[in-house]
Amino acid sequence: QSALTQPRSVSGSLGQSVTISCTGTTSDVGGYKYVSWYQQHPDKAPKLMIYDVSERPSGVPDRFSGSKSGNTASLTISGLQAEDEADYHCCSYAGRYTSVFGTGTKVTVL
Amino acid sequence: QLHLQESGPRLVKPSETLSLTCTVSGDSISSSTHYWAWIRQPPGKGLEWIGSFFYSGTTYYNPFLRSRVTISGDTSKNQFSLRLSSVTAADTAVYYCARWEGIADHYFDYWGQGTLVTVSS
Asked: Is the confidence at residue A30, as pLDDT, over 90?
């Protein structure tokens, strides 16, 4: 159960779009529809932003969207805002009631 | 509103056992609709799932930590706990408890604020 692979960092200007990838295997990302994404500001607890690959919890802005193709899931932030600067973590169900997280990505708003 | 709060020693000596408790308010750990989980984050690194607990006593653990981890619950206090034995410096991390939507779905929807546990002599 190795960590899912994410880019260490991505950046974009205010109003632009950024996409974060999350690559796993057929045993996790590729095998299930259960990919979730979490936003984490410095010294804060993670916050659920996306679940079931592309579903948004109530209260999450619609500029956050998720998708999946094969063993890679993606989180796109459209119309980047200053408050979107944070770390983002993907997570996938890995079977037998286990979960695996990604390596984490720092999003910088230029 | 659901609230989770971690508590326990912040400093643990190498080779000893790390023990943390998560107190839940706003929901019952005896509920058959959710699991409860522990997740950790070493300084400057990503999140790592440790394990999950169901009110019936069923537990699921990260294969890499299974030999050292025990998660249990106290329904009378609405708390669940983590024990991690034989700790080393590599176990230094912020430890989070969370609610896991693991029945019909799989995601962590509520998190505690986290507590930093340092392993050092």
From this structure: yes
Contact of B104 with chain A, judged by CB distance below 8 Å, is answered with: no
Structure tokens that stand for A93 in this block: 């169900």
- Looking at the partner chain, which of A1, A44, A51 has a beta carbon nearest the beta carbon of B62? A1
Confidence of residue A99 (pLDDT cuts 50, 70, 90): very high
Q: Are B3 and B111 in contact (CB under 8 A)?
A: no
Residues of chain A with Cβ-Cβ distance to B37 below 8 Å are: 99
Tens of pLDDT, residues B16-31 = 999 999 999 999 999 8
Amino acid of residue A100 = V
Backbone angles phi, psi at A48, to 5 degrees: -65, 125
User: Could you read off the pLDDT of B58-75 as tens digits, one per residue?
Assistant: 999 999 999 999 999 999
Buried b (16+ CB within 10 A) or exposed e, B65-94: beebbbbebeeeebbbbbebeebeeebbbb
In the sheet that B69-74 helps form, which strands lie side by side, from edge to edge? B3-7, B18-25, B79-84, B69-74
Contact of B120 with B9, CB cutoff 8 Å: no
Tokens of A102: 């990604």
Cβ neighbour number for residue B20 with a 10 Å cutoff: 23
